[in-house]
Write a structure and sequence with these properties.
With about 350 residues, the protein is α+β, with helices and mostly antiparallel strands. It folds into 2 domains: about 150 residues, Aminotransferase class 4, branched-chain amino acid transferase, N-terminal domain (D-amino Acid Aminotransferase, Chain A, domain 1); about 160 residues, D-amino Acid Aminotransferase, Chain A, domain 2, CATH 3.20.10. The chain has 7 helices and 18 strands. Strands 1, 2, 3, 4, 5, 6, 7, 8 and 18 form a 9-stranded antiparallel sheet that branches. Helix 2 packs across helix 3 and helix 6 crosses helix 7. The protein binds pyridoxal-5'-phosphate (PLP). The site of pyridoxal-5'-phosphate has 13 residues, from strand 12 and helix 6.
Length: about 350
């Protein structure tokens, strides 16, 4: 393995070519053998259903090089199961948890030299992708699919410390409908979010914030991250049919319970932000991105959560605990971590 000349600590969340990706094709009603490729492009039919009718699903998870020198992958079985749920949602063939995990481990091992060193705070982002490749002109599910996993090193989310960010409620666009595809990790939801995301950035906010599409009353989620709030020693997160079930959020709910907090999954009226002691957005990229304030411009409201821009003590505790488990520095009592051998 040759040495790489990469400034790990200053990597962004972007694409960098690595040595290999792994692929598997679904043809004639069955998934084939796992293939290793060093090609960055894929060759597909111009009438492939992923290009016209959005038969596309993806996942996102990370591998970490740890202080003890080992490589750990966080909750990949949960990603496999979520992908299966997405497949049922948009009529694509499901890939077994076993095959998914075998491919994740394989692609991480094959690209071992791209896993950033422990000290850098950077990690290896793993991007599984499942697309309909069979040609269709009418609106039907494809009969052929391609599952690919590529990896790319990504920088630490927080440079210069763990700080809180401002968010803005976007009322003029919806990301997903109450009975739509918001609960599945599909590209279409992201296409639907690009305008709102651009608007939030143009206004100087870190990210857009969505309310439920039907009543515009309850909190849904923040861009590509789930929401949680903390008050009265309780971890509160939205119950909604239009948000993506975040594995980070699920893990934080468990850790909150372990820390002796009450956990509530319920509708959260936007006005309840007034009483939140802490709030954060959570997802694989940042684990927790604390929220300093949420502005609801149309309603002339600004919900300030953290005046000094610092994360609250419980958010910090949850963050440290989850990072500790991911890096093998805290006991993995829930069996969330795979150590590569
Ligand atoms: C991926 C994603 C999340 C975060 O999920 P994690 O499993 O925690 O990374 C949250 N919201 C949306 C819309 C997402 O696509």
């Amino acid at each position: 393995m040759s040495e790489l000349n990469i400034d790990w600590a200053n990597l962004k969340f972007g694409y960098m070519p690595t040595d290999y990706n792994v692929r598997c094709y679904f043809r004639n009603g069955a998934w084939g053998e796992i293939e290793v490729s060093s090609e960055e492009s894929i060759n597909i039919h111009m009438a492939a259903t992923c290009l016209h009718y959005g038969q596309e699903a993806f996942e996102g998870l990370k591998a970490y090089r740890c202080k003890d020198g080992k490589i750990r992958i966080f909750r990949m079985e949960a990603n496999a199961e979520r992908l299966q749920s997405t497949c049922r949602g948009i009529l694509m063939p499901e890939l077994s948890t076993e095959k998914f995990c075998e491919m994740v481990k394989k692609v991480v091992k094959l690209n071992e030299r791209f896993i950033p060193p422990y000290e850098s705070g950077a990690s290896l982002y793993i991007r599984p992708l499942l697309i309909g490749t069979g040609a269709q002109v009418g609106v039907h599910p494809a009969n052929e699919y391609l599952f690919v996993i590529f990896v790319t090193p990504v920088g630490p989310y927080f440079k210069g410390g763990f700080f809180a960010n401002p968010y803005v409620v976007i009322r003029e666009y919806d990301r997903s409908a109450p009975l739509g595809t918001g609960i599945y990790k599909v590209g279409g939801n992201y296409a639907a979010s690009l305008l709102a995301n651009k608007k939030a950035h143009d206004l100087g906010y870190a990210c857009e914030f969505y309310l439920d599409a039907k009543e515009k009353k309850y909190i849904d989620e923040a861009g590509a991250a789930n929401f949680f709030g903390i008050k009265n020693n309780t971890y509160i997160t939205p119950k909604s049919t239009s948000i993506l079930p975040s594995i980070t959020n699920k893990s934080l709910m468990q850790l909150a319970e372990d820390l002796g907090l009450k956990v509530e999954r319920r509708q959260i009226p936007i006005e309840e932000l007034e009483t939140m002691e802490e709030a954060g957005a959570c997802g694989t990229a940042a684990v927790i991105s604390p929220i300093s304030k949420i502005d609801d411009l149309e309603m002339n409201k600004s919900y300030v959560i953290s005046k000094d821009g610092k994360p609250g003590p419980i958010s910090k505790k949850l963050y440290d605990k989850l990072r500790g488990i991911q890096y093998g520095e805290e006991p993995d009592v829930h069996g969330w971590v795979t150590v590569l051998d």
